[in-house]
Amino acid sequence: MKPKPIFYACCFPELQKIAKERGYNLLLHGSMDRDMDLVAVPWSDTPSTHYDLISSIDEYVRGIKYTEDSFESGYMFSVLPGGRSSYVVNINRGGPYNDYLDQQYYLDISITPFK
After folding, report:
1. Contact 42/77 with Cβ under 8 angstroms?
2. Among 33, 36, 92, 99, which residue has the least CB neighbours within 10 Å?
3. How far apart are CA 113 and CA 115, in angstroms?
4. Residue (of 53, 57, 51, 42) closest to 89 by Cα position
């Protein structure tokens, strides 16, 4: 049994709730084998800012969040094809303190353009 899909699946309902409260529909795609690929689609006429959505998700999964000043660099912001905004929420990316064999736990979130 692989632990990542189980962990991600346990997080998903609460992540959807967080997104819905902020005017987004959160969709899951991919295998969840390495990371959790998510797409947030604006679902109201007044969705919250990307900062509010991503930092709220981060606060749920890690208990902390980046400030607005370090938002783009902290969440590895990039623009993808179709004008999607991409953010990465690192849950556990390994390092010298982690002896666990599979060290990559993170959320890869794309937000589709509002207009």
Report:
1. no
2. 99
3. 6
4. 57
Q: Do the Cβ atoms of 47 and 111 come closer than 8 Å?
A: no
Q: Alpha-carbon distance 105 to 102, whole Å?
A: 8
Q: What's at 60, amino acid-wise? A: Y
**Among residues 81, 79, 29, 28, which one has the least CA distance to residue 50?**
79
- Taken in order 60, 64, 69, 73, the sign of the CA dihedral is negative
Residue by residue, pLDDT tens for the chain (115 residues) are: 788 899 999 999 999 999 999 999 999 998 888 899 999 999 999 999 999 999 999 999 999 999 999 999 999 999 999 999 999 999 976 555 555 555 688 999 999 998 7
| Strands 105-111, 36-42: pairing kind | parallel
Do residues 37 and 29 lie in contact, with contact meaning Cβ atoms separated by under 8 Å?
A: yes
Taking the mean position of all CA atoms in its chain, how far away is CA 36? Answer: 8
Q: What is the pTM of this model?
A: 0.89
